[in-house]
Amino acid sequence: MTAGAPFDPKIECMDPEARRELQERRLQGLVERLLGTDNFQGALLKDLGVTRGTDVTLDEIHLLPTITKQDLWDHYPFGLQLVPQEDVVCVHGSSGTGGRPTLIPYTANDVEVWAEVMARALAGAGATRSSIIHNAYGYGLFTGGLGVHHGGLRLQATVIPMSGGMTERQVRLIEDLRPDVLCCTPSYALRLAEDLDKDNSIEVGIFGAEPWTEEMRHEIEQRLNIRALDIYGLSEVIGPGVACESLDSEGLLNIAEDHFYPETDEGELIFTTLTKTGMPLLRYRTGDVATIHEPRGRRTLRRMSKLKGRKDDMLVIRGVNVFPTEIEAVVLELASPHYLIVEDRRTSTPQLHVAVESIQDIATALGARLKERLGITCRVHVLEPGKLPRTEQGKAQRLARWSQGQAPIDGLT
Ligand code: DLL
């Protein structure tokens, strides 16, 4: 077996036409399930005149209503749950924007689906039964830690359930246990790289949960001397494992589309959970921006690009649309990967500050490159190495909004 071989070739390498039939059958089953309750999503379908599963087809899925995070909040905590409480085996979620949590009930079936797609992600990265997986995603309500955990168990590999933080201890265990796979956020991989020897045992990293660019990938690969792969997912859909790069996927992420049917609308990813039973979602608008690509290579799954950003992260500066990831790409040409973008909205003409760390005076050169690439003038602040906050746990905050009062970091005016 070659490295990164499919975990489940029957499904991952399936004839696309046969898969489409499977997806359609599953979609119709989902619609039946939604119609069978007085659930909000079922009511939306009934309003449209849908009376049974076979009324809908994949070709016409775009005519069905979408659902958003706002709908989840409106029915908080479990208004969209489709099964009796005794069928729920666990709950996950995210703290989310503005501290409003999103909670997702999982059935035993959902945990099975999750383990399966995560085992595929790990196997695609080259992990096998003999792998040792150092899992530094947070364990808890957040789906990162337990998602990797379920997948690792399904693969029958050895999972080290480190969770986030306590970097010194993490480094010690990596040195002692010699894992070949590292799972954590890309920003935490960089944090580990500050303390970990380049000559370490790790061969591949599976990084996600927050935006990161090709330039960041290059930086991590260099610093840790590993292959760095991207994994994407969101709690509403299942957690990590919705899509993941494999060693041979050419920078694109294989979508587990037999479980999560993808569409895009004006760049925004929409997913339908075809097989989930706890809180299935029909056409969930993710807010994430990416493109979908046709399959190539041994896997016949469609693939998605790295995320370009989130709809709500898009900055509009003097009429120019800018995603923080575009700024990251420029910053990494000249400075270290620790940076912070500050959107200054104290006056009616918003301004962008970009704070970086360097021992050289790169302010003018970086300002010029940002202007050239983005078409807007940014105020660049060069700080001494170590001055910007590091992320020890959870997701990195690369963007701060400044609408009044004190600057989010010292030194900005
Ligand atoms: O972050 C699930 C996850 C855990 C994915 C571990 C990958 C690894 P949430 O906390 O619900 O779930 O946040 C989901 O995070 O809508 C994206 O905006 C962002 N996100 C997730 N993966 C990536 C990625 C998990 N690879 C939200 N690149 C999503 C960029 C990502 N953004």
Automatic annotation (TrEMBL):
Residues 82-243 form the AMP-dependent synthetase/ligase domain. Keywords: Ligase. It comes from the Bacteria. Residues 389-413 are annotated as: Disordered. Residues 319-399 form the AMP-dependent ligase C-terminal domain. One of its GO terms (molecular function) is ligase activity. This is Phenylacetate--CoA ligase. It comes from Lentzea roselyniae.
